[in-house]
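Loading example: each entry is read as two labelled lines plus one structure line.
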Amino acid sequence: MRPLLLAVLLLLSLAATAGCVRVSPWERDLLARRDMAWEPEGLEAKRESHVYFSKEASMPGGSGGGGGCGCN
Amino acid sequence: MRGGEREGNGARDRAVAGEALVLPSRTLTALTTGALALPGLALPARADSPIEQASAGYSFSYYAEDDLEKDKFAAGTGSRERYEVFTNQFEVDLPVSRRMDAGIDFLYEKMSGASPWYVLPDTDDPTQNVQVMSGATIQETRYDLTADLDYYMEEGKDTFSAGFSKENDYVSVHGAMGMERSFAEKNTTLSLSGAYSHDWITPVQGRFSDSRQNSGEKWAVDLFAGLSQVLTRSSVAQITINYKHQGGYLSDPYKLIAIRNDVNLPDKRPNDKDQISLMARYRQHITALPEPFAASLHLDYRFYWDTWATFSHTFEAAWYQTVWFDWLTITPGIRYYSQSGAEFYKAILPGSATASVPHYRSSDFRLSPYGAISGKVKIEAALEDLLDYKASGAAETFGLSGGLDLYLAFSYERYISDVDFAMFSVGTAKEAPGLVNFQIFAVTLTGRF
């Protein structure tokens, strides 16, 4: 399963960088920006995720899953 | 339509007679085809310390599906007017103590329109299929309430959430627990969570179906792991994996599948399903732009696979362009999605009822192979430090800090799906005439106090 292999490789390369990258807390101004969040706006992310899983066969990935039943 | 072929064909007679069908809800369709997105995994994207200010948000959105095209519509069978949904969302987040904050999300929405029912060969061109629709008489209201609590410690946080969702024919309860731990001076963050949901389905009995079952139950366990890594001062990446097992009644009692030149049969799907979703996300802040401009690039990729033999790829990109410092942001975004069909998906079953029919079968377009492209634009104004007031003791307890920031956002999304957009070619026989196109308008107002 090629995508799984790809994901494992990505994961490993991420883990590998963990050892060598150090961004200090006082250098986090850009990373702390609102537009750098995984989901900058919670209500929007929840609504979108809900629409997609209602109309498509896939389940949401990441931590952006919406609640409820998928009725729309 | 099918003229004399309908003679003596009970289920179909009723089906194609064009009665005003009262389908109570599209809940089940979505439930059984898509995954039930586990709310417990919708852990709020908060900072790694408790929020210091109370915040409240409201969002209104209008979701409208295009009318089914005339050449894909089985004339005389209901309505081409598909779904529209008016959604109201509310959220409140409060600091509770030095180590805790809590949040409540409430959703209320009204849905109405017609829904795809089953597929027939076109009488003019039998090589093409057309969609039989229900009447545009579906009316449904959904409520969804979720509460969550975050407990923070030096190197991470624990999150608990619970909630329920309710419609006329459907109730779901869910709960989740999650943890986040940071390492290497918070350059690396590991997230783990688990969630459980249980749903009760009571299909409203209609006269157009004889074989609908009275009620059903389903449950799901969802496990999630994620690893985030700060790459540079201005970039961060994340890999996540979700595994979900669903058990119970996963069919759609409101859908049928036609046997060519014969009767219609109820939709029937396996009683369990395992799903895996892998996701990679990347955020890059663009530092090369001079003030007052700034930008952030968002790239997301998701691979999905399940034991019904469906897999999919999703690519998303968004560009957050600050137009005037952080006061005004314009964000164009694009999304591409492609899925294979479930192994038991068929638009129409070949053969006749006397021949053996597949044990599992569905004509639901959500289980068909196709691709979808959507484009989106969002404009957000941030009005910070609007007010300077003195919060009293009691108000301060609820996180009122003496300031007011307002965020106002408008967004528009257009979504188009088509077999020709699929990554891999799809034969005419597999093509679902009921594929959906829609648009969403939304306005969101958030305040921090």
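Chain B touches chain A through 109 residues (CB under 8 Å).
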